[in-house]
Amino acid sequence: MQALPRCTRPLHAPVLHQKHINRIQTPIAFPAYRWTRSFHASASIELAFDLHDNGGKATGAPILILHGLFGSKRNNRSISKALARDLSRPVYALDLRNHGDSTHDKEHNYTALAKDTEAFLKQHDLKDATLIGHSMGAKTVMTMALRDPNCCANIIAVDNAPVDAALLSDFPRYVEGMRRVEAKGVQSQKEADQILEPFAKELPVRQFLLTNLVRPGPNEPYKFKIPVHILANALGNLGDFPFKDPDATRFNKRALFVRGTRSPYVIDEMIPIIGRFFPRFEMVDVESGHWVISENPEAFKRAVVEFLQDSE
């Protein structure tokens, strides 16, 4: 399995940590935000999930799939079903903390996300698992692999790398747009979409963000199911990576990195540091932007199936 050549640095690429190249990140100031929902506060959170096992026919080693920022297990329903069918392996699609049906917590960083998922593996007695993660989920599975290489058989990291890199400016704009929607007290998805449009120009992105919009009760204005203020404050953490020294910590099992050809998140300059943390890594380029799984599900599935069948 080989990476397609890609030698040019995309415009607006994330800036690397100075340990690797250089890091420039402008602090983002967010106004105070009132919130009345109660929050969980413990070492780990019990995660909501959907199990896809092809009607009980998928009985092999488990696969966990972790979504990205503002996503949920719903986003991975189709690919989870396809992988369970094609690989005869049960697929657990998770909701990470502060997303989907999982509990909200003021702490949101990769160590906390990793601990939650590690607890999930233990709770469900899942052995020899493959960990798949996109974006935020990708850094989570990388963190898990480096924290405890015995927690999994292998990992698949989708469009992210083990580096400190400032998030693109798109994400603070999305947050501001979602805040405007909630402040307006909208009564329809159409009204919410109109408010969000200046902050997220692409319709598929707005549709993705609006999957989080729910009506708490009859005739009540729509609210976002995710705690927007917590995730806004966590944006800096989500650009970071908790491991800094690949000479001290490595994952010596197989790892697949899948990157979108039109995405700036895994540029060629990052490949050496990937190889130092994950010396047995392979890389595949998929024709897509950052949203690899939704933009090109067939190419993504093919890369995953080939990688995992090579492991057998």
TrEMBL record:
Keywords: Hydrolase. GO terms for cellular component: mitochondrion. GO terms for molecular function: carboxylic ester hydrolase activity. The keyword Transmembrane does not apply. The keyword Hydrolase applies. Residues 62-297 form the AB hydrolase-1 domain. It holds the Pfam family Abhydrolase_1. PANTHER family: PROTEIN ABHD11. Belongs to the AB hydrolase superfamily. This is Alpha/beta-hydrolase. It comes from Melanomma pulvis-pyrius CBS 109.77.
